Amino acid sequence: MHPVEWIILAVVIVGVVVALLGWDRYRGGRKSVDNTAERTDEVFIDPANGQRMRVWYNPKTGRREYRPE
């Protein structure tokens, strides 16, 4: 194998591990366990269903949550 192929293989393996362990901070429908999320003024339309969504931010975890308005 060429060195470039090793690098591509390593990147793919790291990407799979990250995806399986759920290290994405801003995705997933998880809500704050401690209910410290604060409502923001940011509103957007969800393209999947056309529903208005409000952004909530939890300063303790750094997560942004999306809730129906």
Keywords:
3 strands; single chain; 69 residues; 3-stranded antiparallel β-sheet; alpha+beta; 1 helix
Tell me what you see in this structure.
- This protein is of the alpha+beta class.
- It has one domain (3-68).
- Helix content is 28%, strand content 30%.
- The chain is built from 1 helix and 3 strands; from the N terminus they run αβββ.
- It has one helix at residues 3-21; strands at 38-45, 52-58, 63-68.
- Strands 1-2-3 form a 3-stranded antiparallel beta sheet, with no helix packed on it.
- It is elongated, with a radius of gyration of 17 Å.
- The termini are far apart.
- The mean pLDDT is 81.
Supply the number of helical segments: 1
Overall helicity: 25-40%
For the termini, the CA-CA separation is 53 Å
Shape: elongated
Tally of strands: 3
Unreliable runs? none
What is the CA-based Rg, rounded?
Answer: 17 Å
Structural class given helices, strands, pairing?
alpha+beta
Note the beta-strand portion.
25-35%
Count of discrete structural domains: 1
Question: What is the topology, as strand order, of the major beta sheet?
Answer: 1-2-3
Oligomer: single chain
- Main sheet characteristics: 3 strands, antiparallel
Mean pLDDT across residues: 81
| Helix and strand run | HEEE
Brief write-up:
The chain has 69 residues and is of the alpha+beta class.
Layout of strands and helices, then pairs:
Layout: H1 3-21, E1 38-45, E2 52-58, E3 63-68
Antiparallel strand pairs: 1-2, 2-3
